[in-house]
Design goal:
Layout lengths: L2 H12 L1 H13 L3 H4 L11 H5 L11 H12 L1 H10 L8 H7 L11 H12 L3 H4 L2 E2 L5 E2 L3 E7 L5 E7 L3 H22 L8 H15 L2 H14 L6 E2 L12 E5 L4 E2 L3 H6 L4 H19 L1 E3 L7 E3 L5 E3 L5 E3 L2 H16 L2 H11 L1 E2 L5 H12 L12 H9 L2 H4 L1 E2 L2 H20 L5 H16 L2 H36 L10 H34 L4 E2 L2 E2 H27 L1
Helix pairs in contact: 1-10, 2-5, 5-6, 10-11, 14-20, 14-21, 15-16, 15-21, 16-17, 18-20, 23-24
């Protein structure tokens, strides 16, 4: 055990109260088998008694649903973990993905006196001294933070996002426990190692720690604001960086109505059809042009302002698209428009990281079966987001590692298409996306783009070529000093080797038996044998040994036949 593991174990033992609470909740939902996977549970005082507690009669509910219920009861760390897993179809089966998408993050708000000290610490004074007014009753409350409306002395209406006190230490405590449980799960169930649960917990830890630092969300808002500086018709809130800190986020309040409130939109004099197209254009632009997009789009995060602008809220999660992902999504869009299933399958394989061999023919067939039902509709009725979710859902079967950003994109497309068809029954996101895919294709053929890519590729190959002499020299030196070991893994080879070994052993026993019998006979014929009361001792011993060895060989040959 290294130092980091020791410290994690030490902190987990110190947190046995929380661990006991986790085991109790798991048992209550009929999930005690997960806690029993680790020997640590039984070593913490009182835990074994809790582990034997009743399951609460919930055993009849489907397992994914019981896990979701347990996560919601276990608190924000586990809710966030479930939400992350709902975006990882390469790690959990589709029924778990679907269930975890229903995880609720809303909790009862804390009283003002519980959060006021945090704001006072950040502001350097009492909130009522800094703000002209602040509403002590929160507008919204979630597991990590709650939001209050306030007004600056300049008259500007703002929102203040305050982190729930003590949430940071609670998350760190839960992460330590999850990390240790992941290690024990791998030892108890080695087949889970391919899913890398320890790495999943580490990745989750990095994600939730970023969400706990509101300075990162403030930076996300500024990134999106810069990308839309010259874009008409979109509204991104302005952050008051001088008032914002790690646990406090202050930004302007965007006034507007929910994007799905068609009657309110019409009363303000705006065209729902135009808003649907603009909303789609905003999302597609972020994905295919900017390479950075809002990763948590839903109807509650999109407003329509009195001026007809589309306002975006809540930037805790951003998706990022590198050039390869952008080209891949553009290619998939083309494949959907042309109904080229092979193109879609090949692009998904290229974008994902197969953990094992993938039969591309079978995968293309499964992609076709997953996507084909949607092609009974016109393109204007085709839900691209659902199509992507269906194809990414094959990842678990084929052991593909889907980049999380692709799943964020698919969910964002599901949201924008659902909202778009609420505003416009003839809404077609592919029509909006086709403009960007054409521009992207033209840009790829642009001489300057080709020159830059050729330069980058040439540098890469030059770097690889320059390393080849050193790599060859190192390989030769290692071959001389340590030798070369080649491992061959062939299905069924191990069984064939065992059968061959048994056959060789039987032949050896037969030869040894015949040798003993022949040797005893020669001694007897030469008169060199020792006799006792007229019985030739050496010949008798040889004969008995030969008979015993022959019996062993016979049993070895007849055993498999008799078992069949």
């Amino acid at each position: 055990m290294d130092l980091q593991q020791f410290l994690t174990v030490h902190r987990t033992y110190k947190s046995f109260g929380r661990l006991r609470e986790i085991v109790t909740i798991l048992s209550r939902h009929g999930l005690s088998q997960f806690s029993q996977a680790t020997p640590l549970i039984g070593r913490i005082p009182g835990v074994s008694r809790w582990r034997r507690g009743a399951k609460g009669g919930l055993e009849d509910a489907p397992l994914p649903r019981r896990i979701r219920w347990a996560m919601e009861e276990l608190g924000p760390t586990f809710v966030k973990l479930g939400q992350m897993l709902s975006m990882r179809p390469d790690l959990v089966p589709p029924d778990y993905v679907a269930e975890f998408q229903h995880l609720q993050d809303a909790v009862n708000p804390l009283p003002w006196d519980a959060v006021r000290p945090l704001l006072k610490e950040r502001l350097g004074g009492e909130p009522h001294e800094v703000f002209a007014a602040i509403n002590e009753r929160p507008m919204a409350s979630a597991s990590i933070a709650q939001v209050h409306e306030a007004r600056l002395r300049s008259g500007e209406v703002i929102v203040v996002k305050l982190q729930r006190p003590g949430i940071g230490p609670t998350v760190e405590e839960d992460l330590d426990i999850l990390g240790l449980l992941a290690q024990f799960m791998v030892k108890a169930f080695p087949e889970l190692e391919v899913l890398n649960p320890v790495g999943v917990v580490e990745e989750f830890g990095r994600t939730i720690r970023r969400e706990l630092d509101f300075r990162i969300e403030a930076h996300n808002i500024e990134v999106i604001r810069r990308n839309f500086e010259t874009y008409e018709g979109v509204r991104i809130p302005r952050v008051h960086t001088e008032l914002t800190g790690e646990r406090v986020l202050v930004m302007e309040k965007i006034e507007g109505v929910k994007v799905t409130d068609i009657e309110a939109i019409r009363r303000m004099g705006h065209d729902p059809v135009a808003l649907a197209r603009r909303g789609a254009d905003i999302v597609i632009k972020q994905v295919l042009k900017d390479g950075v997009f809002h990763g948590d789009l839903h109807a509650g995060n999109i407003l329509v302002t009195p001026k007809g602008e589309v306002g975006l809220l809540d930037f805790g999660v951003l998706g990022h698209m590198d050039k390869k992902l952008i080209r891949g999504i553009a290619t998939i869009f083309v494949g959907l428009m042309e109904q080229e299933f092979g193109l879609i399958a090949e692009e998904i394989i290229d974008l994902c990281q197969p953990r094992s061999y993938v039969d591309i023919t079978q995968f293309e067939r499964d992609v076709r079966n997953a996507v084909l039902p949607y092609f009974g509709l016109e393109l204007a009725q085709l839900n691209v987001g659902l199509v992507l979710l269906e194809t990414f859902g094959l990842a678990f079967k084929y052991r593909l590692k889907v980049p999380q950003d692709l799943f964020l994109l698919a969910r964002s497309l599901v949201t924008i298409e659902s909202i778009g068809r609420t505003l416009d029954p003839k809404f077609d996101v592919l029509a909006v996306g086709s403009t960007y895919t054409k521009d992207l294709a033209a840009k790829q053929l642009d001489p300057e783009t080709l020159r830059k890519e050729a330069l980058v590729l040439g540098r890469t190959y030059l770097r690889v070529a320059s390393q080849l002499p050193y790599q060859a020299r190192a390989f030769a030196a290692r071959a001389v000093t340590d030798g070369i070991r080649i491992e061959v893994n062939h299905p069924g080879l191990e069984g064939a080797v065992r059968r061959q070994e048994r056959a060789v052993n039987r032949v050896a026993l037969s030869i040894l038996s015949a040798t003993l019998l022949a040797g005893g006979g020669l001694l007897l014929a030469a008169g060199a044998d020792i006799r006792f009361h007229g019985v030739p001792i050496l010949f008798t011993v040889s004969a008995l040994g030969a008979a015993a060895l022959g019996a062993f060989a016979l049993v070895g040959m007849l055993g498999p036949v008799l078992r069949r």
